[in-house]
Design brief:
Helix content: 55-70%
Structural class: mainly alpha
Distance between the termini: 51 Å
Number of helices: 10
Number of strands: 0
Radius of gyration: 17 Å
Length: about 220
């Protein structure tokens, strides 16, 4: 019975992550399919770029909530004690499935975003202190360079280092997750890395007001 419940929640986590918030917000409020504009990516960064700060912020928060909610589902399992290794392992399982759903959403022909915001929500649920440091690092790099991609990559790479060295989290699966998450972010940003090296990566207009071209 426990296995059936875990499998059911695993499916729920993937379906939750699959919710294409950028696509839905774009179509519902702007009559626009975000996948055919900007970078073609169905995520918060491209939403900021194409639809502006308001739409981008909404999508960002919704994507964070997806990961946070999925990783928190384990709290409703009466047969899993909070704080145990099994509890954390199930948080990792449900959270990663939500991230996978965001990257390959079943509702949007498996073409989604890069999973950064959903991954952040997952990390907040599992280890909020590490998430807080990574967010601060992200903001410092973003305001210093104006590269969202570089900020995401360096923050993700720093996560396992922060969790293990600063907060002394030695749980093997958690450490493996941190390394895997960093690698996943690097892999999903391969095109961005190429543009960064070439010097033609798009920079974020942090202070300029976005002129919305869509109704």
């Amino acid at each position: 019975m426990e296995l059936i419940v875990i499998v059911a929640l695993s499916i729920v986590s993937y379906l939750l992550g699959s919710m294409p918030t950028a696509l839905w917000v774009g179509k519902a409020f702007y009559g626009l399919d975000i996948r055919f504009h900007g970078s073609g990516n169905s995520g918060a960064t491209n939403t900021f770029r194409v639809l502006g700060k308001k739409a981008g912020t909404i999508v960002l928060l919704l994507d964070v909530v997806k990961g946070l909610t999925a990783a928190s589902l384990v709290r409703y399992l009466p047969f899993v004690e909070m704080g145990t290794i099994r509890f954390v392992n199930l948080q990792l399982l449900f959270g990663l499935l939500a991230v996978l759903g965001h990257i390959f959403p079943i509702y949007a022909k498996f073409k989604g975003g890069k999973g950064i915001a959903t991954l952040l929500g997952m990390v907040i649920a599992i280890h909020y202190l590490s998430a807080l440091v990574c967010m601060l690092l992200f903001l410092v790099i973003l305001f210093s360079t104006r590269y969202v991609s570089l900020s995401s990559i360096l923050s993700a790479v720093a996560f396992p280092i922060i969790a293990v060295i600063i907060y002394n989290n030695q749980e093997p699966l958690f450490v493996a997750f941190g390394i895997a998450a960093a690698l996943m972010v690097v892999l999903t940003h391969q095109k961005n890395i190429v543009r960064l090296v070439a010097g033609n990566e798009n920079k974020a207009n942090l202070l300029k007001k976005h002129r919305n071209r869509y109704p």
